[in-house]
Amino acid sequence: MRIVLVGPPGAGKGTQASLLAEHLAIPHISTGDLFRANIRQGTELGRQVDAILREGGLVPDEVTVAMAADRMAQPDAANGFLLDGFPRNITQAKALDELLAESGTKLNAVLDLEVPEEEVVRRIAGRRTCRKDSSHTFHVENKPPREEGVCDVCGGELYQREDDQEGTVRKRLAVYHEETEPIIGYYGEQGLVSTISALAPVPEVTRRALEALPGGGE
């Protein structure tokens, strides 16, 4: 099963990608993880990405495609994979189609996690992170700390990361609408897209996603 997972920031792609990949016994391939792994391993592509990111630049499509191609060629991806964060735009989507055609395969499905824009803003802008340990996270509505501004776990100060501020979230959404959302139409023309409402508890969204796959994910 070869799947692309797409959706706006705050849709829960990372969570769903991990759960779906585990259920289907295929690797979860995340662009962010690819970048970090190549940088950590000191590969040629990793050195290129590290230099670009240190200067605050965007990783070129050809570098992202090359990393993804290398990962998809690994033995554990022989029977399929779930792509999260790739392709990011139409150029990358076309490159992916070409890569798969060269290997005599194609995508089985594109799952579009749908969340209203104001819900995305509410989810992300409400996050609060511990300054002592960033793995300790809370939400002003969904998971408030016992004492406002104080981490329940270690007593550290809770703060709102710059990436989580409303203005930044709306800019990220604008980039998503401009760059990534068009791939939904591109894959829709190929009959591959299933739109999944992500306004539900995590297990229910996973169930909906599995049901939308060819053969119900079996």
TrEMBL record:
Its keywords, alphabetically, are: ATP-binding, Cytoplasm, Kinase, Nucleotide biosynthesis, Nucleotide-binding, Transferase
Adenylate kinase active site lid domain location is 127-163
- Example GO molecular function term? ATP binding
Mind telling me which CDD domains this protein's record contains? ADK
Show the SUPFAM superfamilies listed in the entry. Microbial and mitochondrial ADK, insert 'zinc finger' domain, P-loop containing nucleoside triphosphate hydrolases
One Gene Ontology cellular component annotation held by this UniProt entry: cytoplasm
PROSITE patterns the record matches? ADENYLATE_KINASE
Sequence segments annotated as region (NMP): 30-59
Q: One Pfam family from the UniProt entry?
A: ADK
Write out the residues that bind ATP.
Answer: 10-15, 127, 137-138, 200
Major localisation: cytoplasm
Location in the cell? Cytoplasm
Entry's EC annotation: 2.7.4.3
* Role of this protein: Catalyzes the reversible transfer of the terminal phosphate group between ATP and AMP. Plays an important role in cellular energy homeostasis and in adenine nucleotide metabolism.
Q: How does it assemble?
A: Monomer.
PANTHER family linked? NUCLEOTIDE KINASE
- Similarity section: Belongs to the adenylate kinase family.
* Domain remarks in the Swiss-Prot or TrEMBL record: Consists of three domains, a large central CORE domain and two small peripheral domains, NMPbind and LID, which undergo movements during catalysis. The LID domain closes over the site of phosphoryl transfer upon ATP binding. Assembling and dissambling the active center during each catalytic cycle provides an effective means to prevent ATP hydrolysis.
What's the protein name? Adenylate kinase
Record organism: Streptomyces marincola
